[in-house]
Amino acid sequence: MQHKKSGGKRQEETIYGLTSLSPQEASAKRLLSLLRGHWHIENKSHYVRDVTFDEDRSQVRCGSIPQVLAAIRNTCIGLMRNSGYKNIAAACRYHAAQPHAALALLGIRKTE
Asked: Phi/psi of residue 61, each to 5°?
């Protein structure tokens, strides 16, 4: 793979990977598609968890609590995306100020 650095010089990089695909299944086009699919997930979910929810700085380390919190974050992200929100950070700010709207995402409506 070649790319330009900020100084204008070209730099070549070789990336190695492992796959369970047979040589007939592992065309360059297929491998590139799988790699891009992985990064699509990384950018869509993990990036939001890392940046918006500041997950990397979490100090929770006991038992299965980190996995439970990650599942809760994923659920929140999924609920907001399913409701049409593109900017998860803005959606979090909105729902923090409007808790009734957050409950509505879960199907809990305000009753009188």
From this structure: -135, 0
